[in-house]
Amino acid sequence: MAPRGRDLTTPQKETIMKMSESGMSSRKIGESMQISANTIQKFLKRNRANNNDENTGRSGRKRFSTDRDDRVLARLVKSNRRQSLVDITTEYNQRAPKQLSTRTVRRRLYDLGYKRCAVTKKITIGEKNRKARVDWCRGKRRWTVETDWCKIIFSDEMKVVLGTDRKIYVWRKSDEKFNRDCLGVEDARSPRAGISAMFWGCLCIDGVGTITEVDGNINSAKYISVLDTNLWPVITKNFLNKPWILQEDNCPVHRSAMTTAWKMQQSIETLTWHSQSPDINIIENVWRMIKIRLECRLEDIRNRADLIRVVKEIWEDINSEDIICLYQSIPRRIEAVIKSKGYITQY
Question: Which portions of the sequence form the region Disordered (predicted)?
């Protein structure tokens, strides 16, 4: 006999219908197919009544928890997004007369839309910088890629450390990824010791520019040397007899008196930039792209020299179409910052 409680399959239903239409009784059909006659009769009766052979839904086991229990669990999750499943279950059981298992709590949270996810590590933005970001974006709202952003050379430094940072997990819904209580605050602790290197790079709308390693800590004199060596080849190649503007963040060495005087002497115009705005700086996306691709080439790296070589190879392989897409995303980034009232955005 067929296993008890299992639904009839589509081929079985078709066979039953053919046998029934040929005049066979339910008992004969059941004996032939090794299915109980009662099951055959119920199926034929349902088929005649509903004019279809779809299986009816099953009620399943009655839920142990109630809607009120669900609301309590939701409040516990929102009060501390980083709690473990065991902690949530323990706190609930201490408050309620009904005791729930961790499996039940997990199912109820999943049904409510909450999942345990690694946080998106984003910086927290102060009130002053938040308002400044909005004002800056409103001032650039009418800029277009074709006439304005195409002149900008984005530049930045990146430190690569081979190692793994500690992941932080939170309970959140799919549309809460960038909620303030679902984000990780920048961790000031150093990642696990490993091979590391600092890089400076720049890009323009025609593709990636130059990239170079920076030895040791960067100061004003070293930064000027980096610009003098690596910026002009990009200008010569992509902006001959065309206007251009250099974008830098607000790192102290970028706006020191020594650096500012050198840039004035070289007639280098810079784009005003506000602090805590990595989501507008498209070169941050390129750095992330490099780090992701670097994970696939760890076997090629044995020392710092290997790390520098691999990073430069990845940089050179970045498609110019990807860079154009990043430039085209800038107006959307501007609107996203304005819409979020200066808080960090998905970019």
Answer: 45-66
